[in-house]
Amino acid sequence: MRYFCRWLILGLIGFILVTACHHTSPSSPLTGDCRIIQHSMGETCVPQNPQQVVTLSLATLGNTISLGVKPIATTNEVHQGNPSVTFVSGNPEGVKLIGLKEPNLEILSQLKPDLIIGADWYKGIYPQLSQIAPTVLGELNYTHWDRHLSFIAEALGKQEAEKALWANYNQRIKD
């Protein structure tokens, strides 16, 4: 009976440990098919090759497209507080507008993104965003716009495309 109790207790402890170690959430899947990205809210495991990307901010949209990735949806900031005038007269073809200042979380959820990338001013809704899909938020300071580009390139796994952009940028400055 003593041995039975020991084995039962060891079995329960083992079960609890295995269950606790295999807990996953949408923002941190435990698969070999993701990379850990450090960002404003900590770290997130993002897909190696995301296919359903949503961008939150016009700068993030521009950087994403420049790196060769067409997002499925985006937000678009309001120009000088006027909700009828946005920075872009129209979004790129096929990219769904899901909100001006903040995304419509219900529509965002229905799109089933596999990666949400945005600026750190979305910290307030990060918990909701990370329940929808892996979410990374980077610092966006227009004085240091180049840092945001590098952050987006890392999140998308597009560092080589970023190098090509910088080479082209530097050549244009020389010319």
How would you describe this protein?
The chain is of the alpha/beta class and 175 residues long. Helix content is 41%, strand content 21%. The chain contains six helices and nine strands, in the order αβββαββββαβαβαα. The protein has helices at residues 2-21, 58-66, 105-111, 126-132, 145-156, 159-174, and strands at residues 34-39, 42-47, 53-56, 73-74, 78-79, 82-86, 96-97, 115-119, 135-138. The chain has a five-stranded parallel beta sheet. The chain has a two-stranded antiparallel sheet with strand order 1-2. It has a two-stranded antiparallel sheet with strand order 5-6. A hairpin with a 2-residue loop joins strand 1 and strand 2 (42-47). Helix 2 (58-66) packs across helix 5 and helix 5 (145-156) packs antiparallel against helix 6. The longest helix is centred in the N-terminal third of the chain and has 20 residues, at 2-21. The radius of gyration is 21 Å and the shape is globular. The relative contact order is 0.16.
Largest sheet: 5 strands, parallel
Main sheet: strand order: 7-4-3-8-9
Distance between the termini: 85 Å
Q: What's the shape?
A: globular
- Spans with pLDDT under 50 lasting ≥5 residues? 17-30, 82-89
Order of helical and strand elements? HEEEHEEEEHEHEHH
- How many beta-strand segments? 9
- Helix-strand category: alpha/beta
